[in-house]
Amino acid sequence: MAALLEVKNLVTEFPRHGAAPVKAVNDVSFSLEKGRVLGLVGESGSGKSVTGFSIMGLVDAPGRVAAGDIFFNGENLADLNAEEMRRLRGRHIAMVFQDPMMTLNPVLRIETQMTETLLAHEKMDRAEARARARDALGMVGIPSPEERLSAYPHEFSGGMRQRVAIAIALLHSPELIIADEPTTALDVTIQAQIISEFQRLAEERDTAVIWITHDLAIVSRLADDIAVMYAGRLVETGPVAQVLTDPRHHYTRGLMDSVPSQNTRGALLKQIPGMTPSPANLPSGCSFHTRCGGADGLCTKLPPEIWEGERSYRCVHPLGARALDAITGEAVS
Amino acid sequence: MSETNEVMEKAPKMPLVQARDVTRRFGATPDLAARIAISAGAAEPPAVVYALDGINLSVARGEVLGVVGESGCGKSTLGRIVAGILPPTDGEIRWKGEPHHKLKGRARKAADLAAQMIFQNPMAALNPRMRVESIVAEAPRAHGLIEGSVSDYVDEHLRMAGFDPAMKKRLPHEFSGGQRQRVNIARALAVKPEFLVCDESVAALDVSIQAQIINLFVKLREELDLTYMFISHDLGVVEHISDRVVIMYLGRIVEEAPVEEIFARPNHPYTQALLAEIPRIEPRKRRFEAIKGEIPSPLFPPKGCHFHPRCPFAHARCRVEVPKLKPVAGDHLSACHLNDEAAAGA
Ligand SMILES: Nc1ncnc2c1ncn2[C@@H]1O[C@H](COP(=O)(O)OP(=O)(O)O)[C@@H](O)[C@H]1O
Ligand SMILES: Nc1ncnc2c1ncn2[C@@H]1O[C@H](COP(=O)(O)OP(=O)(O)O)[C@@H](O)[C@H]1O
Ligand code: SF4
Ligand code: SF4
Ligand SMILES: [Mg+2]
Ligand SMILES: [Mg+2]
User: Fold this and answer.
1) In what residue span(s) does the ABC transporter domain sit (chain A) (predicted)?
2) Does the beta-carbon distance from B208 to A271 stay under 8 Å?
3) pTM for the whole thing?
């Protein structure tokens, strides 16, 4: 089966004065099938949002996609003109942001915002559009949707605003939703409500999802697959059940070990030393080598992408069962 | 250290700080939506917010008390009050057994220095035009705490906080969030505090940096014999670092227990709901379950048990009568009517 989304060797850069451009996304490849949920995880500045914007065709100039291809339903997005891209974004791919006000217009009633987009993209009259909008609000758990249609965004709480933004994203039943930290700013009980509703709606419609987050705990429960990003590169990808039980890359392991609840209460956390390097000033080879306990001279050359069944990683001294073979093999050769 | 043997014998575990029937009201500043409603005559101007409503609490010397709750439940207000930087509206704070409002002169100054706050956003606490070294030296210099060389004093405290003194001539904006938080911690340590109120001190940090700063707090506690109130919305963090935990909901404590006890046997329905959302890595796709409803506005808190509109076990009594915080076992307290009813039925 052809993948719904296929990202191949994507490079997205931002120019700098008097220096080579910053590669915010550096040679990133992954694919996503219909109805699957991919958790894209990494710390701030690792390139998660820029990956999402690149797929949406929303990288702001002077930033640009400098290399690579993005295929959606087999079509190369680079071949689409601005109008076709806009149409695709409206109907087939939608994005939900951490700040719902990125989606919502503060001076328009919710009804206006929702019906305008429906009328722009689908053939229907105003009454039909209004009914669709009302149903969409109800579906994401907004009480009295009929009345709430006439409200302005500021009349909603933060959690309710995010529900409205999700309702708008779901309006045309897109095949792919890119959700960029949509619950990070919300309280835990509200976060759980929204994820649970989002999860149900995506499953019912067989929507594919890229859920961008720094939170491994959410990804472990929500996603089918995971892609771990560090300093612009994907360092490890694969099914959640494999990667988060038996990680190969040392950064994945380090991130998991940094989660307090994975540690003995009161003991010191198994922390990763040092800081994330600035993308403007990356260490050579494996960018993690300045912080990695397993690093040696081999790590200053860029590790190749190694495939093992459905999973892949860029590490010359991978952890876990297969790691032993790799290391022994290394020592022998 | 200054207590007599007599006091030590009488009260071997004297609380460092206590809150007694503490209530804090704020004159409400309505948000935009509320202002529109008020000007349209659709709503009455709200009189007051009860940020805290009858809080009783004590922090023992040397312990880490975790405070958990969702936004607006009063955690920061409680932190500022126990740190002595915000007076309660009613009730009192006792610092080492003495009513805080009665402390004067040197005793007051000593109490002020002994309790320090570490906030979520270190940038707000750091003067952007001051070099790191001046930020750290300012308060101890003003209070005459530095005996030898100022430079050595600054280096020592920066090192304690895991910050390389070689960078002390730089300005706060030149550093990442984690490094700034270290400067902020060094600044607090430099006045030789006994009690740190950490208000979401690791919330804004990346996972790997958060782990480093949590470890720093754990080490400092051991090395310097510190007492913490550790405020966080993240149950995983609180579970890791605390000895005892307090759960708050809309201005009230709903449950309080030693950390093992509260995580093994949560009693209050709200605590149970929160614990279901503790961030653990469980590589198994499953449905997120969630309690229903929005967090009510503290301007218009529900009557009776504040949690009743969202509680799956709410019944008639919950809508009229405020449940009292009462022992359910040993030092485990909970404020839920179900406990009386279970006791009565048994
Ligand atoms: N508008 C921009 N101009 C210049 N650089 C940018 C811009 N947006 C992002 N970047 C660079 O791209 C990197 C990745 O950013 P981003 O994708 O937002 O990270 P994440 O979402 O993982 O936190 C950043 O570290 C930054 O250097
Ligand atoms: N200075 C203030 N003026 C008015 N209201 C305040 C003030 N500080 C806090 N509040 C209100 O008190 C309640 C509790 O706030 P806070 O202690 O900051 O809660 P938390 O830290 O748990 O989010 C909130 O409703 C908040 O709006
Ligand atoms: S390639 Fe080397 S530095 Fe990178 S994660 Fe693997 S062992 Fe560590
Ligand atoms: S007192 Fe009633 S509403 Fe409150 S937590 Fe207990 S059962 Fe629920
Ligand atoms: Mg981002
Ligand atoms: Mg707060």
Assistant:
1) 5-256
2) yes
3) 0.90
